[in-house]
Specification:
The chain has a single domain, classed as Orthogonal Bundle (Farnesyl Diphosphate Synthase). The longest helix has 26 residues. The protein has about 280 residues and is mainly α. β1 and β2 form a beta hairpin. A two-stranded antiparallel ribbon has the order 1-2.
């Protein structure tokens, strides 16, 4: 798990809250945002925007849009999976109720689309974001319906439900700069998603076991590997995916790949911390 970030500029945080507006649904949404989070997707947008020479307002609008989408997915995911806690405090649905959680997640999604009003190519940006939302929703639905998974199926689900929103910040920045690399950025997002999921599975191993959720460590255990060996293989899965992500990212022009490589470095550090603690 990545640690909460204090390095995201204030305009991203204030922008998210301002777009939620006022009223009880907005208050529930702000409750979730104030619980923290690594703001990984915002940092991807800002790093890519800097590499591409975007003006700050455009980079921030991309960061705000994708962070709101990601947090909406967390709100709905907690409700669907009945997870009581999020970032060390009661999940939004547990604090405000099921109906408020649905409405707050929907409000975040709408606010995310509103953020793109400042994008220099808003029509195309809206299309990219809709595609990412649709792909993520399909991935989440497949995950909820999944039974016993193979390693390949686990990778495919990770790419489907996590990859779109990891690629989207860089895709939106590339679009704003009228720069090539959209398909390549999508591929990098898929590789990072596999690493991200493996890291989460290492962190949540025992909690997932207790809840009966799919976990890569347990897939290796089911294949006959001892628990410690299964954890080592899960770490290897994350490491190999990060290596492939970096290899692809360097192909992006204007040093845009540095945004992805910065995230890969942070994931590597988190992986090392889990390995040292094991």
């Amino acid at each position: 798990m990545l640690t909460p970030s204090n390095s995201v500029p204030k305009p991203v945080e204030t922008g998210m809250r301002a777009l939620l507006g006022d009223g009880p649904v907005a208050a529930a949404g702000r409750y979730h945002l104030e619980s923290g989070g690594s703001r990984t997707r915002a940092r991807l947008a800002l790093d890519a925007g800097k590499a591409l020479g975007l003006i700050p307002d455009v980079a921030v609008c991309c960061a705000v849009a994708v962070e709101l989408l990601h947090n909406a997915s967390l709100v709905h995911d907690d409700l669907q999976e009945k997870d009581d806690m999020r970032r060390g405090q009661p999940a939004l649905w547990r604090r405000f109720g099921h109906q408020a959680a649905i409405c707050a997640g929907d409000l975040m999604i709408s606010a995310a689309f509103a953020s793109l009003a400042l994008h220099p190519r808003p029509a195309q940006a809206l299309g990219l974001m809709h595609q990412a939302v649709a792909d993520t929703a399909r991935g989440q639905a497949d995950d909820l319906a999944a039974g016993s998974l193979s390693l390949y199926e686990n990778r495919t689900l990770a790419m489907a439900k996590t990859g779109p929103l990891l690629a989207l910040p860089v895709r939106l920045a590339l679009l704003a700069a009228d720069a090539p690399g959209d398909a390549l950025a999508t591929k990098v997002g898929h590789k990072l998603a596999v690493a991200y999921q493996a890291l989460d599975d290492l962190h949540d191993h025992e909690a997932d076991r207790a809840a009966g959720r799919t976990n890569l460590c347990m897939l290796f255990e089911a294949a006959g590997y001892a628990p410690q060996q299964a954890r080592e293989m899960t770490r290897d899965e994350a490491g190999q995916s990060l290596k492939m992500a970096r290899g692809l990212a360097v192909g992006l022009q204007h040093r845009t790949g540095s945004a992805f490589c910065n995230l890969a470095d942070r994931l590597d550090s988190a992986l090392t911390e889990i390995s040292d603690a094991a």
